[in-house]
Design a protein that fits this description.
Radius of gyration of chain A: 23 Å
Helix content of chain A: 25-40%
Oligomer: heterodimer
Distance between the termini of chain B: 6 Å
Radius of gyration of chain B: 22 Å
Order of helices and strands of chain B: HHHHHHHHHHHHHHHHEEEHHHH
Number of strands of chain A: 24
Number of helices of chain B: 20
Distance between the termini of chain A: 11 Å
Shape of chain B: globular
Structural class of chain B: mainly alpha
Chain lengths: 451, 482
C-alpha cells in the first residue's frame, strides 16, 4: 500500500515509523531540510524535501496510486490545502490533522468534500481527560457508538469486592450487574481473560458496557468513590480552555493556571465562572496558596512537557486527587506511571496511532488504543455475507487473543454471551491484543472485498 | 465642533416641536377652553425660530460624536424653553421661569410640577404637559438605545449590537432604523395603556394623558392628588403594570414582540430589576403592616407596590402620601430614586445596568484580594465586558454622586432643610418628580425661588442626558474646531 505523509514533525515521523514497520510503502514529504535530516536518521522510507501543497511536487510523487494521504503538519491550513490538492490529483483516502475548532462544521466534520477524516487530537484528548477525571477509580475511558458503549480501565483496589475472585465466581454472584471484563493488564503483560482468570489487587482491568453498567461495576472494583468538585488546570491554551468549559458544564469548580498574561486574559474572557490565575506552574508557593493540595483533580496540559510533569508531581506531593499529565514524547509516556502520575495523554501519539489504524481495515468504524498495553479496541460493522451472522457465539471460531466486548444492535447495547446471535448491520466492539489483531482483521474483512 | 451643523439640527427639533404645538391647540379648540391662540402663537414663534436656525445652520448630514453631545443637550434645552411659551403667554402659569420649569420637567420626563392647582388648568395646558412627557420619552428611547451607544456614554456601548439595523460610521442611518422599531413599541404600549385605562372607567382625555405620562415615566397627572385622585384600584393596577413595562429596556419589548419572549428572563438587568422591586416592596410593606396606616391588606400591598414601582421607574405618580409612612420607607425610596429604571427604558437615575456592573466590579476587587494572581473579566449578559467600559460606568457613578452632593450643598446653602435638599436633588437628577420633605408627593416645587428652579432645571437635564453628555460641554476641547 502506498502512503504519502506530509510533515515530518513528531506526528509525521511517528506515523511513518508505525506504517513502515507494518510493511507499507511510505513517502514522507517535508519542506524544511533540517527537519527532514532528523527524520532520515531513523526512518526507512522514501523522503521528498518539497512543499506538500505544491501540485507539481505531489504529481511527481504520484497521487493516482496513493492509497492514503495524510497531512499532519502543525498548520491546519496547510493540511487542508494539501488534502484538497491530493484529492484533485486522485489520491484515494485523505486524512487531515485540523486542530482549530473554527474549521469544524457542527463540531466534528469538516465542510470540505475531499477530506475523508479530520483528526483533532486536542479535542479528543480534552474529551478523554474529562471522562477520566469523572470516573473515580477509572484510569482511562473510551466511547463508542456515540457514547452508547463505554470502555473504562480501572485498577483493582486491595479492599475491593472483586479482588481475589475469578470471573466465573463474579458472574455467579453479581450476574448482570457487572460489566464484561475484556482485558486484564498484570505486570506489563495484557491478557484476554476467561472464566478461570482470578482478579488480583493492582490489576488494571478493562470493562465494556453501557454507561450505567460501567459506573456500577466501578463501585465493585475501586475502594472509594470521591465526587469531583474542584479541578485545577495548568495551561490556558485551547485544550485547557475546552477542558475547563466541559468541566464547568458539569458543575465542577475550575481554577486555570498559566504563566502567560495574554493567554490568561483570553481564558478569562471566554470562561465565565472559571478562576483564571496568572501563576508560573513551577512557582510552588502561590499554587499552594491557591489550594493545589485540596483539588480533586489536577490536569497539566501546558506547552512545556517538563513543566507539566513537574507540576503534576507537585500536586501529587501536596495531596491532590487524580493527576493527569499531557505529554507528547514517547519516552515520557512510558515513564510517567512509575512516577505516580495517574494518566498521561499524548495527543500526537494518538494521532499517529489512529491514522495507522485506518490503514487496510475494511469495515472498521472506529478504533482506539488501550493505554500503554498495545492492545486495541476496534468497532466493526457486520456485513450481510459475514459467516458470523446468524450463528450463536459459542459455535463460532473467533480468533485467539481477542474478544467481543459489546454488541450494538438497533434495539440497544448487549453484553455478549454464548447464546448471543449476531445479525447483519450489528456493530461489535472487539478487544484485540497485538498478536490477535491480524486474525480479527481477517475475520471481519470477509465479504467487504477490500482485502 | 461644527457649530453651524448643530444649529441646523436645533432648527429641525424646534420645527418638530412647533408642529406638535398644534395638537394641544386642537384639544383646546375641542374643549372650548379659549387657550388655542396661545398654542398657535407659540407654534408660530417656534416655526420662525426653526426657520432662522435652519437657514443660519449648515449641512448636518455628517455630525459626529462631538456635535452629538451639543445637539442632544441644547436640543433638549431649546425644545423645553419653547414648550414653556404657551402656558406663559396665556397666563395659565404666570412667570416664564415656572413655565419653563414645568415644560423642561415634562420633556425630561421628570414630572416635578410647580402647579398648585392642577385641576384648575385648561385642557390645552394639561394635554400639552402630558404630550411633553410623551415626546420627551420618544427622545429618551432613541437617545438611550441609538445615540448614546454610538457616543460611548456611561456604559451604554453595551447596547451597541443589540438592536438590529445597519451599523455605520455616521450617526444618521442607524438612528433612523432603530427609531422606527422602538417608537413602534412605544406607541403600541401607549395605545394599550390608554385603552386599558378607558376600560377601567377613565375618560378618553385622562386616559391618553396618563398613558403618555406613564410610558415616558414622567408623572404629570391631571389631579392634585395624582393617580390617587381617581380612587380606583383597577386604574392603579393598570398603571403599576405599565410603569413597570416603561422602566424595562425597550429592546426587550421589541424582542418579545418578535416572538423572543424568553429575552426577558435571559437578561441580567431585567432579572435584577425585578428582584430589586420585589425586595424593596417587601421592606416597605413590612413596617406598613405593623403600623397599620392603611386599613385593608389589599390597599396596603397596592399602595406599597405602586409607590415602589413609581419611584424605581422614576415615574413619580402617587396614590398615597409616603411621607406618612415609617422612615425606613423613605430610606428605601431614596435609594430607589438613585437607582432608577433599566438602561434603554424611559426611566432615569443611575440605571439598573450600571448598578449591576458596579456591584460586579466590587465583587471583582474582593476576588482579587483573596486571589492576588487572578486574572478577572467582567461578565454581563453572558458576554465579557471590556475593562474600559467598567471604568466608564465607575466614572458615571462618581459624576452622578458629585452632582448630587453639590446640589444638596447648594440647596442647603440657600437655606433649605437637609431632607428637602436631598429629596429635591434626587428627584430632579433622577427625573422622578416628587421627593422628600417639602417636595413630597402631595407638595410641589412652587415654593422654590428663581435660581433654585434653574438649578433644578439643570439637574433634570443633566440626569436625563446621562450626566456625561451635559458635562462634556464644559470641557474646552469639546468646542474646538475640528
Amino acid at each position: 500500500m502506498k502512503i504519502v505523509i506530509i510533515g515530518a514533525g513528531a506526528v509525521g515521523t511517528d506515523l511513518a515509523r508505525n506504517l513502515t514497520e507494518s510493511g507499507h510503502d511510505v513517502v514522507l514529504v517535508e519542506k524544511n531540510a533540517d527537519v527532514m535530516a532528523v527524520a532520515q536518521e531513523s526512518l526507512d522510507c522514501r523522503f521528498v524535501t518539497d512543499s506538500g501543497v505544491s501540485p507539481s511536487a505531489l504529481e511527481k510523487i504520484g497521487m493516482r496510486d496513493c492509497d492514503l494521504f495524510a497531512a499532519v503538519t502543525n498548520l491546519d491550513e496547510i493540511n487542508i490545502i494539501a488534502c484538497l490538492t491530493a484529492h484533485q490529483l486522485g489520491a484515494k483516502k485523505k486524512v487531515a490533522r485540523v486542530r482549530s475548532q473554527e474549521y469544524y462544521y457542527h463540531g466534528s466534520h469538516l465542510a470540505f468534500k475531499g477530506i475523508d477524516i479530520a483528526m483533532n487530537p486536542d479535542h479528543e484528548a480534552a474529551h478523554t481527560i474529562r471522562e477520566t477525571l469523572f470516573r473515580s477509580g477509572a484510569l482511562e475511558a473510551h466511547r463508542f457508538a456515540k457514547g452508547k458503549v463505554r470502555v473504562v480501565a480501572a485498577k483493582v483496589a486491595e479492599a475491593s469486592y472483586v479482588a481475589g475472585k475469578s470471573l466465573r465466581e463474579l458472574n455467579k454472584e453479581l450476574g448482570n450487574s457487572i460489566a464484561l471484563v475484556a482485558a486484564v493488564c498484570r505486570d506489563d503483560t495484557t491478557l484476554i481473560p476467561n472464566g478461570d482468570t482470578i482478579l488480583q489487587p493492582n490489576d488494571l482491568i478493562y470493562f465494556t458496557g453501557t454507561r450505567r453498567l460501567v459506573d456500577r461495576s466501578l463501585y465493585y472494583v475501586s475502594a472509594q468513590q470521591e465526587p469531583l468538585q474542584k479541578v485545577m488546570i495548568v495551561g490556558a491554551n485551547a485544550m485547557g480552555r475546552e477542558l475547563a468549559r466541559d468541566l464547568m458544564a458539569a458543575k465542577v469548580k475550575v481554577k486555570i493556571v498559566d504563566p502567560d498574561p495574554e493567554r490568561c486574559r483570553i481564558a478569562s474572557e471566554s470562561l465565565h465562572h472559571a478562576l483564571v490565575l496568572n501563576i508560573d506552574p513551577v512557582d510552588t508557593s502561590p499554587l499552594v496558596d491557591e489550594g493545589i493540595g485540596e483539588m480533586d483533580g489536577f490536569v497539566a496540559v501546558g506547552e512545556d512537557e517538563e513543566v507539566n510533569i513537574l507540576s503534576c508531581l507537585l500536586a501529587k506531593g501536596k495531596g491532590a486527587g487524580r493527576t493527569v499529565c499531557l505529554v507528547n514524547r514517547a519516552d515520557y509516556v512510558d515513564l510517567l506511571p512509575n512516577l505516580g502520575v495517574d494518566v498521561a495523554v499524548s495527543p500526537r501519539r494518538s494521532t499517529s496511532a489512529t491514522i495507522a489504524r485506518f490503514v487496510g481495515r475494511g469495515a472498521v468504524v472506529s478504533a482506539e488504543e488501550l493505554g500503554f498495553t498495545g492492545a486495541q479496541i476496534l468497532q466493526y460493522r457486520l456485513e450481510k455475507n459475514n459467516p458470523a451472522v446468524g450463528v450463536p457465539l459459542h459455535k463460532l471460531t473467533f480468533p485467539g487473543d481477542a474478544v467481543i466486548g459489546a454488541v450494538i444492535t438497533p434495539r440497544g447495547v448487549q453484553t455478549p454471551g454464548g447464546n448471543t446471535v449476531l445479525e447483519a448491520g450489528d456493530e461489535v466492539v472487539v478487544f484485540a491484543l497485538p498478536t490477535g489483531l491480524k486474525g480479527v482483521e481477517k475475520f471481519f474483512a470477509v465479504g467487504t472485498g477490500s482485502q | 465642533m461644527k457649530l453651524r451643523s448643530v444649529i441646523r439640527v436645533l432648527g429641525f427639533l424646534l420645527g418638530v416641536t412647533a408642529i406638535s404645538l398644534l395638537l394641544p391647540a386642537i384639544v383646546s379648540a375641542i374643549y372650548h377652553d379659549g387657550d388655542a391662540w396661545s398654542f398657535l402663537v407659540s407654534a408660530g414663534i417656534g416655526c420662525a425660530l426653526a426657520a432662522i436656525f435652519w437657514w443660519t445652520g449648515a449641512d448636518a448630514r455628517d455630525i459626529r460624536a462631538r456635535e452629538g453631545f451639543a445637539v442632544v443637550t441644547f436640543g433638549w434645552l431649546a425644545v423645553g424653553l419653547l414648550g414653556g411659551l404657551p402656558a406663559f403667554l396665556s397666563g395659565e402659569i404666570p412667570t416664564y421661569t415656572d413655565a419653563a420649569f414645568e415644560s423642561i420637567s415634562g420633556f425630561t420626563t421628570t414630572g416635578a410640577s410647580i402647579l398648585t392647582d392642577i385641576e384648575g388648568r385648561t385642557h390645552g395646558v394639561l394635554f400639552w404637559r402630558a404630550l411633553t412627557h410623551w415626546l420627551g420619552g420618544m427622545g429618551i428611547v432613541l437617545l438611550a438605545l441609538a445615540i448614546l451607544p454610538l457616543l460611548g456614554v456611561g456604559g451604554m456601548q453595551l447596547f451597541r449590537a443589540e438592536v438590529p439595523g445597519p451599523v455605520a460610521e455616521r450617526l444618521t442611518p442607524r438612528i433612523s432604523q432603530t427609531a422606527k422599531l422602538l417608537w413602534g413599541v412605544y406607541l403600541l404600549l401607549t395605545a394599550m395603556e390608554a385603552g386599558a385605562l378607558m376600560l377601567a372607567g377613565m375618560s378618553l382625555f385622562d386616559a391618553v394623558c396618563h398613558a403618555f405620562a406613564t410610558m415616558a415615566t414622567g408623572g404629570f397627572s391631571n389631579h392634585n392628588a395624582s393617580v390617587g385622585g381617581y380612587q380606583s384600584a383597577a386604574v392603579e393596577w393598570i398603571i403599576i403594570v405599565f410603569m413597570f413595562l416603561a422602566g424595562t429596556n425597550f429592546t426587550l419589548h421589541y424582542l418579545a414582540l418578535t416572538g423572543k419572549v424568553q429575552a426577558y428572563i435571559k437578561d441580567d438587568e431585567f432579572r435584577f430589576y425585578v428582584s430589586v422591586i420585589v425586595l424593596a416592596t417587601a421592606v416597605i410593606l413590612l413596617p406598613l403592616f405593623v403600623v397599620n396606616i392603611i386599613p385593608s391588606a389589599h390597599d396596603t400591598i397596592r399602595h406599597g407596590l405602586f409607590q415602589t414601582v413609581s419611584i424605581m421607574t422614576t415615574t413619580g405618580f402617587g396614590t398615597h402620601d409616603y411621607l406618612l409612612w415609617p422612615p425606613v420607607a423613605h430610606a428605601v425610596l431614596l435609594i430607589l430614586m438613585a437607582i432608577g429604571g433599566c438602561a434603554g427604558s424611559t426611566g432615569g437615575g443611575i440605571k439598573v445596568m450600571r448598578l449591576l456592573i458596579l456591584m460586579k466590579v466590587a465583587k471583582q476587587e474582593l476576588t482579587r484580594l483573596v486571589h492576588p494572581r487572578a486574572v478577572t473579566t467582567l461578565w454581563y449578559n453572558g458576554r465579557a465586558v471590556k475593562p474600559s467600559l467598567a471604568t466608564n460606568v465607575l466614572g458615571f457613578f462618581l459624576l452622578f454622586i458629585l452632582v448630587y452632593v453639590s446640589g444638596m450643598v447648594a440647596l442647603t446653602l440657600g437655606g433649605r432643610d437637609l431632607v428637602t435638599s436631598v429629596g429635591a436633588t434626587a428627584a430632579t437628577l433622577g427625573n422622578i418628580g416628587p421627593g422628600l420633605g417639602s417636595v413630597g408627593p402631595t407638595s410641589n416645587y412652587a415654593h422654590f425661588v428663581g435660581w433654585e428652579k434653574w438649578l433644578l432645571i439643570f439637574f433634570m437635564l443633566a440626569g436625563r442626558l446621562e450626566i456625561y453628555t451635559v458635562l462634556v460641554l464644559f470641557l474646552p476641547e469639546a468646542w474646538r474646531r475640528s
